[in-house]
Amino acid sequence: MKITDVETIRFTYISNTERDSDGHGHPGPKREAAQTLLKISTDADVCGYWFGTNAEVIRGVVKPALIGEDPFMREKIWRDLNHRQRLNLGTLSDKVIMSVDLALWDLAGRALNQPVYKLLGGYRDKVPAYASTMCGDDLEGGLGTPEDYARFAEWCVKRGYPAFKLHTWQPPYKGAPSVKRDLEACTAVREAVGPDVPLMLDPYHYYDREAALALAKGLEKLNYYWMEEPMDEHSMSSYVWLCEQTHLPICGPETCEGKMYVRAEWIKAGACDISRCGVGDVGGLTPLMKTVHLCESFGVRCEIHGGGPGNLHALCAMSNGEFYERGLLHPFIDFDEPAPWLREHGEPMDDKGYVHIPQSPGLGMNINWDYIEKNKIDRG
Length: 380
Ligand code: MG
Fold this sequence. Notes:
Blueprint: E1 3-19, E2 25-42, E3 47-51, H1 55-66, H2 74-85, H3 94-112, H4 116-120, E4 126-133, H5 146-159, E5 163-167, H6 179-193, E6 199-202, H7 209-221, E7 226-228, H8 236-245, E8 250-251, H9 259-269, E9 275-277, H10 279-282, H11 285-297, E10 302-304, H12 309-315, E11 324-329, E12 354-356, H13 369-374, E13 376-379
Parallel strand pairs: 4-5, 4-11, 5-6, 6-7, 7-8, 9-10
Antiparallel strand pairs: 1-2, 1-13, 2-3, 4-12
Magnesium ion binds at residues 202, 228-229, 254.
């Protein structure tokens, strides 16, 4: 089998979120936005798909590298793109490589008529989810106060989520960052859901060491399950310093570049208790599984960052990650509505809080082609 074409299809949809100046998403007025579908075609009449890529980089850098290649030679293709990153760092990001790798996994599953998690070596067909909130805001009845978080956590537990993670306030929101306010929100949530629900915190990412330690000490008392990224992850020494002084599990690195290599260094240095990565952080499912197995060899849990089909299939093919991150959630957003370009929800959750993996071939995305055709902007 040979790859014959690599295309992107851009189309519009109506979004109900907007980004703040730091890039964090919040509910917003309805607006038109664009989505890009990556399609990899072969001479065997089978294709692979992924939603979310950069059309220009696919055309300029990726397509010439893929035409004529065997789509089942994923390791070779991933290595080749990884090497091309060195002198294309400004454009060929880990997220673009992820889109290619996931479209190739989707293609393999469709060609072999199997869901991807079974190609990886299946471990389970459902995973418990945690409710992962958007960052704090100043919206009335949204996530503007510690009480808002408490009310929303109660709602999430009633919906079936077995665990809850707060993303608290970040600039540009007034009063942020604040260790005191973060701990007030964490306390309000603990009081609302009781002692038995696992709770996690992902706060402002640029606190200094003392602020991060103050947060950790507060969360120890509240019996939190883990904390993520309270400091810039490029300072691994700061995380070693933090881990040495708290028994709160520290989970990371998440956004730090360096794929599986940097995660190996963090484990070796004692900079984390739980490792962390998602398909978007390391450049696809191929390097994510390398990282998962690296962690397993050290007896370290790997909590998967973010949702979506790539991360869900990884979680159903591994034993050392506990939760699926479902979100980002907000009281004003109905997360159980499927994306407009899909015919059904890709991460359906039952009332016990389990996300069930689709059993259809590939990554299990039931694509609404009529919608894409009707809203198409261009094809390249
Ligand atoms: Mg995080």
